[in-house]
Every structure is written in structure tokens, then in C-alpha cells.
TrEMBL record:
A Pfam family: GvpK
Signal peptide segment: none
InterPro entries per record: GvpK
Name of protein: Gas vesicle protein GvpK
């Protein structure tokens, strides 16, 4: 991939399995990031007790680790999941 621009979805009959995995993992990564942001908001608002915060942190870390394993399995880098939405910019946040 050239430059820092996120890639667009390109389906090739030769690589359709990998491309489909990338698309599915992109959706899962988007949901993971949204869950993480919501968890941080709830922590900042004081809605969770210490045990809930600990459990949430462990769950999010495990999910992030599993995502890394799945990307490795399909030969994908994190930037491979960041679809370019044209004028809207990249789908996933970089933080």
C-alpha cells in the first residue's frame, strides 16, 4: 500500500476470502472502537464500580488481542481494515 491513505475496498476473485475477512474484521474493529469509547465515557461519568472497570478493561484487552490474532491469521495489517470513505475520510479512528 502506498502512502498513508487508507485503502478502498477492492474485491479480486483471486483474493475474495481475504477481502471478505478484511471487510468482516473492519466491522468488528469499528464496533470494538465504539465499545471502547462508550466504556471510557461510562468510567469518566463514574457509572461503574472498580470491579466493573476491571472486568471491562480485561474484556477490551482480550478483544483487541483476538483481533490482532485474526488479522495475523488472514495476513492483514491494522491499516488494511481502515476503509477510505472518500470525502468523509477513513472509517476507523487512528487513536
Amino acid at each position: 500500500m502506498s502512502g498513508d491513505r487508507p485503502r478502498r475496498v477492492e474485491l479480486d476473485p483471486e483474493t475474495v476470502g481475504r477481502d471478505l475477512a478484511a471487510l468482516v474484521l473492519t466491522v468488528v474493529e469499528l464496533l470494538r472502537q465504539l465499545m471502547e469509547r462508550q466504556a471510557l465515557r461510562r468510567i469518566d461519568q463514574g457509572d461503574l464500580d472498580e470491579e466493573q472497570i476491571e472486568q471491562l478493561g480485561l474484556t477490551l484487552m482480550a478483544l483487541e488481542e483476538r483481533m490482532a490474532e485474526l488479522r495475523d491469521h488472514f495476513g492483514l495489517a491494522p491499516e488494511d481494515l481502515n476503509i477510505d470513505l472518500g470525502p468523509l475520510g477513513p472509517l476507523l479512528s487512528s487513536d
